[in-house]
Write a structure and sequence with these properties.
alpha/beta; six-stranded parallel β-sheet; two-stranded parallel sheet; 9 helices
Amino acid sequence: MTTLGIIGAGNIGSQVARVAVANGYDVVIANSRGPETLADLVAELGPRARAATAEDAAAAAEVAVVTVPLHAIDQLPAAELAGKIVLDTNNYYFERDGRIEALDKGETTTSELLQQQLPESRIAKAFNHIYASEITTDGTPAGTPGRRALATAGDDAEAVAFVTRFYDEAGFDTVNIGPLSESWRVERDRPAYVARQDAEELAANLAKANRLP
């Protein structure tokens, strides 16, 4: 089974880890404070999970999840993530990250900024527009009427395919926005952001999004 390396053990990272373990993935998870601070989470997750440094989690990963604040992406272990699918959960919160002119002007996206930091990785957007607590509570089996949908975007077909499969395992349908350059449609303050929506509703919300809030 695939090993998921999760860099960032906050609300989203810990929830993605729970989904992954529940679906048979092995998980190596890291945070900025050191593996020893993750003892309780790893104990909860069970034998499929272990804590590590960010470098070790990236090296162990067959697929990685980057869920750190946007201002910290320049600290990611790019060499260890080279060639790997990397799921980007990030959002731009200027109150936390400081003002980033290119984002304020709609000239780039958070995922494209991550791609610049990880030029040899294969980035796909995932889990950035759902409340963390709902990652483990809102999933339903495929075919359920009104099944909640989540969006992804990516320039690499295999990365998008992985997100689509992982979403389904977690209990969500997928709407593919297209390339990373279109991922702004599901960023903060757009109609699709943190809304509970099925695939048809999500596609409609993505289509009516404005580039600048």
